Amino acid sequence: MLATFISVFGLFLWLYLITLRGGFWRLTEHDRNLGGQNAAIPATYVVAVVPARNEIDVIEQSLASLFAQEFRGRFDIILVDDESEDGTGEAARRCAEAHDASSRLTVLSTRGPDAGWTGKLAAMQHGFDHVRKLPIDPDFVLFCDADIEFSPHVLARLVSGAKERRAVLTSLMVKLRCESVAERWLVPAFIFYFQKLYPFRHVNDPEHPMAGAAGGVMLVRPKALAAAGGFRAIRGALIDDCALGALMKAQGPIWLGLTEDVHSLRAYPRLADISRMVVRSAYAQLSYSPWRLAGALFGMAGAYLAPPYLTLFGESPARETALVSWLLMAQAYMPTLRFYGLSPLRAFALPGVAACYTWFTVESAWRHLCGRGGEWKGRYQAPQAQKAAQRFETSGEIETSREIEV
């Protein structure tokens, strides 16, 4: 009886996901459908803000792709060097000189985030504050990561599409690197799960409450962002892109889609590298709630792990019901595998991949409870970790003052 209930529960989940979750698995929301394919008018002014922390290995390739944009308007770049220790800022200047673009690049330095801020959002706000002080207000601000590479026509497509849709935020999910064994097994699933959590069709529907964005490429109307309170309104958000999506959707239409013309340069050669990426924010996705964690684990077990187990070891009718769930699961995953040029047969191994992501989620919760949540490039950014760091700094200041008194 229990096995039958679990198998029916899993089947219900997959029927719901396939039919009522915005068709996320079909990958229809793509920048080739963004619209506005005509080149942007020359009067358009865009400023890119690129937060960078210790990106010496990729920054020159990334900036070179920005300097090479085939854009008829004015396009300047601000690199926010966020306490880099590897010469990222100097590498950026060398790149600008090599491309005869020194007049288009501004390098700002920060002293790290203030209390209550995550590092990336603090750097983005630093860059945005500089933009707001420019003598000419730009029409758009392009916030983009320092580890991605653009094809030459991307900016023109983004700007013209944003104008046609009157979007206050236009965002692209960059195509992640998928070369190592670990990447080929786990990266497509990351994109699949992201679209399941934030169905792009729902995000792009002005009447639907769902909001989201992808942090690698976000084209924003600066007046709308300023009216929403800027990044200060979401300064503690660990999943900063989706928080920005929610903030901006209150200001007007937003759009989120896939692209094959912006590629991530970040390599995740080992399982541990992908684990670190997911563990950083998985528990934040659950709002740091133990109850939501329990619900997520139950849902993952019912949707992904139970179908193959009951298919192989269960009895009728649970076995047949579970087999249907497994087939639906594989069918839903195949378009994402094709998008990454991988064999659709890998779809039948999705339960094993899901087991890895389930473990990543548990580890994320455990790290948060230990005060080490949200770790990224030497910073612990989850709320509990920030509080622990503040307590440590405060106690250090007290001890220092005592030593001075003595």
Blueprint (SSEs and pairs):
Layout: H1 2-20, E1 45-52, H2 59-67, E2 74-82, H3 88-98, E3 105-110, H4 119-132, E4 140-144, E5 148-150, H5 154-165, E6 169-175, H6 181-197, H7 200-203, E7 217-220, H8 222-227, H9 240-249, E8 254-264, H10 271-279, H11 282-285, H12 290-313, H13 318-339, H14 350-369, E9 375-376, E10 379-380, H15 383-405
Parallel strand pairs: 1-2, 1-4, 2-3, 6-8
Antiparallel strand pairs: 4-7, 5-8, 6-7, 9-10
Helix pairs in contact: 1-12, 1-13, 2-3, 10-14, 12-13, 12-14
- Which segments are poorly predicted (pLDDT under 50) over 5 or more consecutive residues? 388-406
- Domains counted in the coordinates: how many? 2
CATH architecture of the largest domain: Alpha-Beta Complex
**Can you summarize the main beta sheet?**
8 strands, mixed
Number of helices: 15
**Element-by-element helix/strand order:** HEHEHEHEEHEHHEHHEHHHHHEEH
Which radius of gyration do the C-alpha atoms yield? 23 Å
Cα distance spanning the termini: 73 Å
CATH superfamily of the largest domain: Spore Coat Polysaccharide Biosynthesis Protein SpsA, Chain A
Please report the total strand number as a whole number. Answer: 10
User: How would you state the average pLDDT, rounded?
Assistant: 90
The order of strands across the largest sheet is 3-2-1-4-7-6-8-5
β-strand amount: 5-15%
The helix fraction, in percent, is 40-55%
Give the CATH level 1 class of the largest domain.
Answer: Alpha Beta
Give me the secondary-structure category.
alpha/beta
Oligomer, anyone?
single chain
CATH-derived topology of the largest domain? Spore Coat Polysaccharide Biosynthesis Protein SpsA, Chain A
User: Based on CA inertia axes, which overall geometry fits?
Assistant: globular
